[in-house]
From TrEMBL:
GO terms for molecular function: carbohydrate binding. Keywords: Signal. The keyword Phosphoprotein does not apply. This is Sugar ABC transporter substrate-binding protein. One of its GO terms (biological process) is rhamnose transmembrane transport. It comes from Streptomyces caeruleatus. Residues 1-27 form the signal peptide.
Length: 360
């Protein structure tokens, strides 16, 4: 763990400890409740697949970053599902994707407000753990979505697509576009982001296949899901590596900023760009020849599935154990996989042929 993360984590620990004392002292939760909830927090006891879905619950959404259109779309999907299910939605969260301490205090706020469940996209795999465990001890169900913590810090993780699929397909898309030859770079989000870091690890594994022997990954840069920083990092990559053939940006903020930079530069159409973006952000860059193909899932479906998972957990239909199944309304039936992971499905690849069929 980096020093700053350590500092933040211990600040989080202190906050969560005093919160626990405050909660037990004010009588809302007794020590016995805390103990028994704590023992079953990770597994949540026994699932009853026939349990009725509860109404009147409150589910708090805590994205990595509130002013990111990707999360606006994801959380709207959560809000609509909760409305349909007769429960309430609220959203809190930091405006910067590198404000881990802020995320910790939002977890504590939701715990203090005694929400029934929270859906969290983690900026850092470990930093939120103490606060999330405290929430679970207080009977709150914790679902991570988009970006996970370690499995012991939540009941279930709603994943956008398998990390393996995402990491490998991004390399495959890039390799095709550059004819399996040349230097490439990655423009990521925050250096601590769980989701991006897993995808990057898988990209590196995929690149070990002999068919990519003429491709060289020269650098991983971090734009922190900040448009301006991502734009500058793209510019920096091209200055530092004049032979660069392509950039993979596994973040909606990064790919948009990189497309904007390339589109107005001499590199337009020559330096290839792929990764994860929304069709609405990328449409103009596909149409003007800056970008050939990129991919994503539907963020609103991810938010919807996170909300439905939170309600199923709070109703006791599932506990987060591998093999449990539940019906996610019109989305159909989902089965919980290894380590409590629920996968939304396969990503969609967008290009000039299909991009106009999508509006998100
Ligand atoms: C950004 C965020 C988010 C990621 C998408 C692809 O909006 O980093 O976590 O899933 O990109």
């Amino acid at each position: 763990m980096r020093k700053s993360s350590l500092r933040r984590a211990s600040a989080g620990l202190a906050a969560a400890t005093s919160l626990a004392l405050a909660l037990t002292a004010c009588g809302g939760t007794t020590k016995e409740d805390v103990k028994s909830e704590g023992a079953s927090a990770a597994t949540g006891g026994k699932a009853d697949p026939n349990a009725e879905l509860k109404k009147g619950l409150t589910v708090g959404f805590l994205p990595k970053q509130v002013n990111n259109p990707y999360f606006t779309s994801a959380d709207k999907g959560g809000e609509a599902a909760l409305k349909e299910l007769g429960s309430s939605y609220k959203e809190v969260g930091p405006s910067s994707a590198t404000d881990t301490a802020g995320q910790v205090s939002y977890v504590n706020t939701l715990t203090q407000q005694q929400v029934d469940a929270m859906a969290v996209s983690a900026q850092d795999p470990g930093a939120l753990c103490t606060a999330l465990k405290q929430a679970m001890k207080n009977g709150i169900k914790v679902v991570t979505y988009d970006s996970d913590t370690t499995p012991d810090c939540r009941n279930a993780f709603v994943s956008q697509a398998s990390a393996d699929d995402l990491g490998r397909t991004e390399v495959q898309l890039m390799a095709k576009q550059i004819g399996y030859k040349g230097e490439i770079a990655i423009l990521s989000a925050a250096q601590t982001a769980t989701n991006q870091n897993i995808w990057i690890d898988i990209m590196k594994q995929e690149l070990k296949d002999p068919k990519y022997k003429d491709i060289k990954l020269v650098k991983v840069a971090y734009g922190d899901d900040d448009a301006q920083k991502s734009f500058q990092q793209t510019q920096g990559l091209l200055q530092e590596y004049p032979n660069l053939k392509g950039i993979i940006s596994p973040t909606t903020v990064g790919i948009k900023a990189a497309a904007q930079y390339l589109s107005g530069s001499q590199y337009k159409g020559k330096v290839k760009l792929t990764g994860l973006g929304t069709p609405n952000d990328m449409r103009k860059y596909v149409k003007n020849g800056t970008v050939e193909a990129f991919e994503l899932w539907d963020p609103s479906k991810l938010g919807e599935l996170a909300a439905r998972t939170a309600v199923a957990l709070s109703s006791g239909q599932i506990t987060g154990k591998e093999g449990e199944t539940f019906k996610a309304g019109s989305m159909g039936e989902y089965t919980i996989g290894k380590d409590g992971v629920i996968s939304l499905g396969k990503p969609t690849v967008f290009d000039a042929k299909n991009i106009d069929q999508f509006n998100f």
